[in-house]
Hints:
By secondary structure, this protein is of the alpha/beta class. Helix content is 45%, strand content 14%. A hairpin with a 5-residue loop joins strand 3 (144-145) and strand 4. Helix 1 packs across helix 9, helix 7 runs antiparallel to helix 14 (330-347) and helix 8 (197-205) packs antiparallel against helix 14 (330-347). The structure holds adenosine-5'-triphosphate (ATP) and magnesium ion. Magnesium ion binds at residues 87-88, 111, 116, 190.
Amino acid sequence: MNDQAENLRKAIEGLKGARLPDSGRLAEPGRQLGSGRQPDSGGQLDSGRRPDSGGQPDHGRQPAARRARAGPARVFAVTSGKGGVGKTNISANLAIALGEMGFRAAIIDADFGLSNVEVLFGAMPRFKLADAIRGEKTIDEILCDGPAGVKFISGGTGVEELVRLDAEQAAALIAGLSEADAEFDAIIIDTGAGLSDTVLCMCLAADEVILVATPEPTSVTDAYALIKLLSSRDREKEIRLVVNRAETPGEAEDIASKLAHVAARFLELDLRGLGYVLSDPLVVRSVKQQTPFMIGYPRSRASMCVRDIAARMMEGGAPRADGDGGDGKGLSGFLSRISRLLSAQYRA
Ligand SMILES: Nc1ncnc2c1ncn2[C@@H]1O[C@H](COP(=O)(O)OP(=O)(O)OP(=O)(O)O)[C@@H](O)[C@H]1O
Ligand SMILES: [Mg+2]
């Protein structure tokens, strides 16, 4: 792995000033997409935005036009090579942004054992995914209310339970999840970081992967290692990059372009950019306040970036019909795949 990181670092350094492939380019918030933006959010990051509420949480939200869609939910795994790069913040705030746009979004906290989503939401769920896996609670009962109408499921130690599922339990759980499919447009899976089997299975089972990386070299090399691992297991996997904590749009675009270039050159993979979130002290403050920044600071630069990512992630695209091993689409398809992948992994 060290050799690989070293090679990648050299490859990235060697690309300085190279012409960058379009697929890796990231649109500046407000420039590319008209579709999911709130009318008051301004078109520019700096000049167009209204001043924030003096750093105090602003609980006002804009009404949104519902854009419900038929069919199973789209399942997005939010993941990263390196830990602490902003997955949970991005998952939570993306779900709120989707809600603003009229989409029904839910989060599954699949960072088993750590359960950071509920901490970020300042919530104390009574039941967890493991309760439904054991058949003791229904899906409706484990769906917790987060802020701004977002629902979430707390993972608990669910991965062990998932591995132990027998066929009958799996069928019951999947049937329950089929109902949840009709209730949501997007399910966001907040995975743990790294190259563990569990994270890999989550990513392989999801319809789409949102890979988060920061501009730090260690995060970039770890992101590349994860892309390489994922593409070695599924060449068709849809992986989209979000650069978090960039100081400027240019820095985000630079990182995205370099990663896309290296992925294209060494893995023959089309790594598309989904957007970026600028480094914003209000993110840190909102974490301390246990109120997602989309709610506490809806006009912060981080919130505007997240709105753009939300709009882009729901553009076009339906859940992939092929290559799912016949398990079907949506959340129930995801659960079928994950239970199969994990069983194969852990029983091997
Ligand atoms: N855009 C940002 N600007 C400033 N700080 C940020 C930003 N995004 C994240 N942070 C900081 O990074 C911390 C870690 O974020 P978060 O918990 O979302 O990462 P994570 O990838 O989910 O971590 P883990 O791998 O441990 O699950 C946050 O508590 C916050 O302080
Ligand atoms: Mg996290």
